[in-house]
Write a structure and sequence with these properties.
The protein is α/β, with parallel strands linked by helices. It has 2 domains: about 140 residues, 3-Layer(aba) Sandwich (Rossmann fold), CATH 3.40.50.11190; about 170 residues, Rossmann fold (3-Layer(aba) Sandwich), CATH 3.40.50. The chain is built from 13 helices and 13 strands. Strand 2, helix 2 and strand 3 form a beta-alpha-beta unit. It is globular.
């Protein structure tokens, strides 16, 4: 019989930084927001790294403990969790933490949910969430026998507005006029600026462009000025209406990673690059499913190649429509509810 989430105490261990990116914290925030709305109590354990999202976490109504800068994550996390132990759930979304860290937290949390997409280390958890497309069981031998694995974009952690706007997202028209640029929270190689270079090189008129960056993006003011002086171009930093911006776009240019499932929920075709090793399988699988065009690693991209890929899709309405259908087939936006249902089982 399902257990109510009301008054449950749920802790999250995740970090964001210019180097790590924002993805771990952002997908945990999506789940935490839904749990808070269901009556649970939530708290984040984070390190105060450059590009952290502490203000956003607190603005959403969640508790936040900054971990001591000792470099010993197990001891620091244990000290922070001990204040209100036992926790009903501990959610860990961190590539540097594995089964040894999780086992040591068993006395402080009744249940552990591990969020992963690498399948490169063992976990000691009760639930394992990997929201990415997979063709095989990558976690064979890495999980306890009693662990329940939640695998695939059916469990993608998306905010409610993505599912809501999915129903009203505009169908693809013959002519693409709205382009969305978003390379994640930090975009360390400034692919946002490179995309604007590529568009300038195309010399097309009448194209509306929206550039979105996060708090960790180091060239915010320069980009703001450039967008203000560029016809038909809008600038957003740490946008809280990404679903709305995606829903009105005809084509996106951006990163692989968790944002893949946000775009897919709204049927938005995309040209993407990968910034890290763990993003390659996501991009490769999504491209194979017909959802996007993957150009390879960000370090290998130049303005000419990027412009050529964008122009090809702008001029291919039938291909964009097929990509839209493939996206909508993969992601329905109800993943967060399914994860919460598993947590309350």
């Amino acid at each position: 019989m399902p257990v109510s989430l009301t008054n449950m105490k749920i802790a999250f261990r995740a970090d964001a930084s210019v180097q790590i990116g924002a993805g771990h914290v952002m997908r945990c925030l999506t789940l935490a927001d839904a749990l808070l709305a269901a009556g649970a109590r939530t708290r984040f354990l984070c390190r105060k790294l450059p590009g952290h999202l502490g203000e956003l976490i607190q603005a959403r109504g969640h508790g936040l403990d900054w971990l001591a800068d000792s470099g010993v994550d197990a001891a620091d996390s244990a000290a922070a969790l001990a204040h209100e132990a036992p926790w009903d759930w501990l959610v860990v979304d961190h590539y540097d933490l594995a089964s040894d860290w999780e086992t040591a937290r068993r006395g402080l949390a009744r249940n552990i949910l591990a969020i992963d997409d690498q399948a490169d280390r063992p976990h000691d958890c009760d639930l394992l969430l990997d929201q990415n497309l997979q063709t095989e069981n990558r976690y064979d031998g890495l999980l306890p026998s009693a662990c329940r694995a939640l695998i695939g974009p059916r469990y993608a952690l998306l905010r409610p507005e993505f599912q809501r706007l999915r129903l009203v997202a505009k169908p693809d028209a013959a002519g693409a006029t709205d382009l969305l640029i978003c390379f994640g929270g930090s975009d360390p190689l400034d692919l946002t600026g490179l995309t604007l270079d590529a568009l300038d090189g195309l010399g097309r008129t009448g194209l509306r462009v929206t550039a979105v960056v996060g708090q960790g993006y180091p060239h915010r003011e320069r980009l703001r000025v450039r967008c203000a002086g560029r016809p038909g171009t809008q600038f957003h930093c740490q946008a809280d209406n990404m679903a709305e911006l995606m829903a009105r776009a005809d084509l996106a240019v951006g990163a692989s990673g968790g944002v893949t499932w946000e775009r897919a929920c709204l049927g938005l075709p995309a040209v993407v690059v990968s910034f890290a090793e763990n993003q390659r399988p996501i991009a490769r699988a999504a491209e194979a499913a017909g959802m996007l065009v993957w150009l390879g690693d960000a370090a290998e991209i130049n303005a000419a190649r990027l412009g050529e890929a964008i122009a090809a899709l702008l001029d291919a309405p039938a291909q964009r429509q097929a990509m839209r259908r493939a996206c909508l087939e993969q992601v329905d936006g109800a993943g967060c509810g399914r994860v919460m249902e598993a947590m309350s089982a």
